[in-house]
Amino acid sequence: MNVLGPSLAPYIRSSRTLKKYVTPVAHWYADLMGYRKMGLKYDDLQVEESPQVQRALGRLTPQEAYHRSYRFKIASDCDLHHKPLPKEQWSKPEDDKRYLQPHILNVLKEEEERFTWDTMTVQRK
To answer: What is the rounded distance in angstroms from the CA atom of residue 40 to the CA atom of residue 23?
Structure first.
Protein backbone atom coordinates (compact mmCIF):
# COMPACT_ATOMS: atom_id res chain seq x y z
CA MET A 1 0.00 0.00 0.00
CA ASN A 2 1.36 3.42 -0.90
CA VAL A 3 1.04 6.82 0.75
CA LEU A 4 -2.22 7.59 -1.00
CA GLY A 5 -3.80 4.36 0.16
CA PRO A 6 -5.82 1.83 -1.81
CA SER A 7 -8.13 3.23 -4.44
CA LEU A 8 -11.03 1.82 -6.38
CA ALA A 9 -11.36 5.04 -8.38
CA PRO A 10 -9.86 3.74 -11.67
CA TYR A 11 -12.20 0.74 -11.62
CA ILE A 12 -15.24 2.89 -10.79
CA ARG A 13 -14.38 5.46 -13.48
CA SER A 14 -14.09 2.70 -16.09
CA SER A 15 -17.64 1.49 -15.44
CA ARG A 16 -20.42 3.86 -16.51
CA THR A 17 -22.98 2.25 -14.24
CA LEU A 18 -20.80 2.30 -11.15
CA LYS A 19 -19.75 5.88 -11.82
CA LYS A 20 -23.40 6.93 -12.11
CA TYR A 21 -24.24 5.51 -8.67
CA VAL A 22 -21.02 6.21 -6.77
CA THR A 23 -20.38 9.83 -7.85
CA PRO A 24 -23.36 11.37 -5.97
CA VAL A 25 -22.40 9.43 -2.83
CA ALA A 26 -18.80 10.61 -3.15
CA HIS A 27 -19.91 14.25 -3.48
CA TRP A 28 -22.23 13.87 -0.50
CA TYR A 29 -19.43 12.37 1.60
CA ALA A 30 -16.97 15.12 0.63
CA ASP A 31 -19.51 17.73 1.71
CA LEU A 32 -20.12 15.82 4.94
CA MET A 33 -16.40 15.80 5.82
CA GLY A 34 -16.55 19.57 6.30
CA TYR A 35 -13.06 20.50 5.12
CA ARG A 36 -14.50 22.71 2.38
CA LYS A 37 -16.37 24.72 5.01
CA MET A 38 -12.95 25.64 6.42
CA GLY A 39 -11.60 26.63 3.00
CA LEU A 40 -9.37 23.57 2.65
CA LYS A 41 -8.78 21.29 -0.32
CA TYR A 42 -8.64 17.49 -0.18
CA ASP A 43 -4.86 17.34 -0.55
CA ASP A 44 -4.48 19.63 2.47
CA LEU A 45 -5.63 16.63 4.54
CA GLN A 46 -2.65 14.44 3.56
CA VAL A 47 -0.59 13.16 6.48
CA GLU A 48 2.58 15.25 6.35
CA GLU A 49 4.71 12.95 8.53
CA SER A 50 5.31 10.59 5.63
CA PRO A 51 8.71 11.12 3.97
CA GLN A 52 7.13 10.80 0.53
CA VAL A 53 4.64 13.59 1.29
CA GLN A 54 7.45 15.73 2.72
CA ARG A 55 9.41 15.39 -0.52
CA ALA A 56 6.26 16.13 -2.55
CA LEU A 57 5.60 19.27 -0.47
CA GLY A 58 9.13 20.41 -1.25
CA ARG A 59 8.30 20.21 -4.95
CA LEU A 60 5.34 22.58 -4.80
CA THR A 61 5.75 25.87 -6.59
CA PRO A 62 6.12 28.90 -4.30
CA GLN A 63 2.60 30.01 -5.23
CA GLU A 64 1.07 26.61 -4.40
CA ALA A 65 2.98 26.50 -1.10
CA TYR A 66 1.76 30.01 -0.23
CA HIS A 67 -1.87 29.15 -1.03
CA ARG A 68 -1.57 25.96 1.04
CA SER A 69 -0.22 27.80 4.08
CA TYR A 70 -2.87 30.52 3.67
CA ARG A 71 -5.64 27.90 3.64
CA PHE A 72 -4.18 26.40 6.83
CA LYS A 73 -4.10 29.81 8.45
CA ILE A 74 -7.75 30.47 7.57
CA ALA A 75 -8.77 26.98 8.77
CA SER A 76 -6.92 27.51 12.06
CA ASP A 77 -8.72 30.80 12.54
CA CYS A 78 -12.09 29.12 11.87
CA ASP A 79 -11.22 26.40 14.36
CA LEU A 80 -10.20 28.96 16.95
CA HIS A 81 -13.54 30.78 16.64
CA HIS A 82 -15.52 27.50 16.38
CA LYS A 83 -17.25 28.76 13.24
CA PRO A 84 -16.95 27.75 9.59
CA LEU A 85 -16.33 30.33 6.91
CA PRO A 86 -19.28 32.17 5.38
CA LYS A 87 -20.86 30.05 2.65
CA GLU A 88 -19.51 32.24 -0.19
CA GLN A 89 -15.94 31.58 1.01
CA TRP A 90 -16.20 27.79 1.15
CA SER A 91 -13.99 25.82 -1.23
CA LYS A 92 -16.03 24.90 -4.27
CA PRO A 93 -16.05 21.27 -5.45
CA GLU A 94 -14.85 22.32 -8.92
CA ASP A 95 -11.85 24.12 -7.34
CA ASP A 96 -10.95 21.11 -5.19
CA LYS A 97 -8.35 19.65 -7.53
CA ARG A 98 -5.62 17.27 -6.42
CA TYR A 99 -2.58 19.57 -6.51
CA LEU A 100 -0.31 17.37 -4.37
CA GLN A 101 -1.18 13.93 -5.73
CA PRO A 102 0.90 14.20 -8.95
CA HIS A 103 3.97 15.15 -6.89
CA ILE A 104 3.41 12.22 -4.50
CA LEU A 105 3.00 9.80 -7.41
CA ASN A 106 6.26 11.09 -8.96
CA VAL A 107 8.07 10.59 -5.65
CA LEU A 108 6.71 7.03 -5.39
CA LYS A 109 7.77 6.27 -8.99
CA GLU A 110 11.25 7.61 -8.30
CA GLU A 111 11.55 5.49 -5.15
CA GLU A 112 10.45 2.40 -7.06
CA GLU A 113 12.95 3.14 -9.83
CA ARG A 114 15.72 3.77 -7.26
CA PHE A 115 14.89 0.46 -5.57
CA THR A 116 15.01 -1.34 -8.93
CA TRP A 117 18.41 0.14 -9.76
CA ASP A 118 19.77 -0.52 -6.27
CA THR A 119 18.76 -4.19 -6.29
CA MET A 120 19.84 -4.89 -9.86
CA THR A 121 22.36 -7.70 -10.29
CA VAL A 122 24.94 -7.63 -13.02
CA GLN A 123 25.71 -10.94 -14.68
CA ARG A 124 28.73 -11.70 -16.81
CA LYS A 125 28.20 -13.35 -20.14
So the answer is: 21
**How far is the C-alpha of 42 from the C-alpha of 33, rounded, in Å?**
10
Backbone angles phi, psi at 25, to 5 degrees: -65, -40
How do residues 15-68 score in pLDDT, each as one tens digit?
A: 899 999 998 998 899 889 999 999 999 999 988 999 999 999 999 999 999 999
C-alpha angle 76/38/93, rounded to 5°? Answer: 150
Q: Is 5 left (phi over 0), alpha (psi -120 to 50) or beta?
A: left
Please, are residues 71 and 44 in contact by the beta-carbon 8 Å criterion? Answer: yes
Q: Cα separation of 66 and 15, whole Å?
A: 38
Whether pTM > 0.85 for this model: the answer is no
Picking from 93, 112, 77, the residue whose alpha carbon sits closest to that of residue 3 is 112
